[in-house]
Amino acid sequence: MATLSASTSLSLYGRTELDTAARVTAALRVEPTSFVEIGGPHPDPLLARQGRVASRSFWIYEEPPGPGPDDGEGGYASLERLALRFGPQADVFKALYEHYEILVWVVVTVDRPEVTFSVKPELLARLARMRAELRPDIRVMRRALV
User: Residue 34, Cβ neighbours under 10 Å: how many?
Assistant: First the structure.
């Protein structure tokens, strides 16, 4: 598999109107890449132009890309970096889990459809301590025939 691109992000979605993105920032002491507070403009620009508002708060941290085009073996090095960055805060995530849905997204773009997705047990254990649900998304980029 040739990995064309890979990205990893951590998302926390508030379960109630009291579960704000600001609360996540304060707990994790990390600034998000993006966030929306409940009642703010809808994150979809089309819906925001229609006057729709966000029905819940969310907080997103996108792991910066690593060196090299493949971002490491199989394009999953960014997942490892994200788990290393946030893994030591397992107690914070345990408290946040009561109020937030915690998701880790991995989006990998490859050049052929025969792809497997594997994650080492140690990395899965770190994500589990973060109370994070892993959401892999493998996208196949079809190259034009010349």
Answer: 13
Please state the φ and ψ torsions of residue 119, each to the nearest 5 degrees.
-130, 130
d(CA 65, CA 63): 6
Distances (CA, A) of 13 to 19, 90, 122, 142, 146: 8, 17, 25, 33, 44
Residue 76: burial class (beta carbons within 10 Å; 0-12, 13-18, 19+): buried
CB atoms within 10 A of CB 9: 19
**pTM for the full model?**
0.84
Amino acid letter for position 27 = A
| Alpha helix positions (H), 4-120 | 21-28, 45-49, 77-86, 90-97
pLDDT tens track for 6-16:
789 999 999 99
